[in-house]
Amino acid sequence: MxxxxxxxxxxxxxxxxxxSLCAPSEYTIHVEKQECAYCLAINTTICAGFCMTRDxxxxxxxxxxxxxxxxxxxxxxxxxxxxIPGCPHHTVPYYSYPVALSCKCGKCNxxxxxxxRERVRTNYCTxxxxxxxx
Length: 134
Description:
mainly beta, two-stranded antiparallel sheet
């Protein structure tokens, strides 16, 4: 019975990453500055999807490396810069945003990702809208 448990555990750890559905996904960012006349709607790609996680309920039975709480995060990305229209000369009219090229399941890096789910939807425009596509 013991070899069956070990093989099941190894299969689960190996198959867990391949069963993840984490990939670049289309997303629209709405950007506006108080000084500017327009809101800019930017079409880009972000990392989104499902990643296998392993519950820590069995943490006394498993090795620490077998436990994980992975999120769908950037593997490769680049930054694009957009010009916000209708800004006065004294305002910096540029906005830089990430574009996901590829994604992976891994630990959330707060240097470039928001690791907390928003409770209130704030991704909308209050000013007239202009569109920008990547």
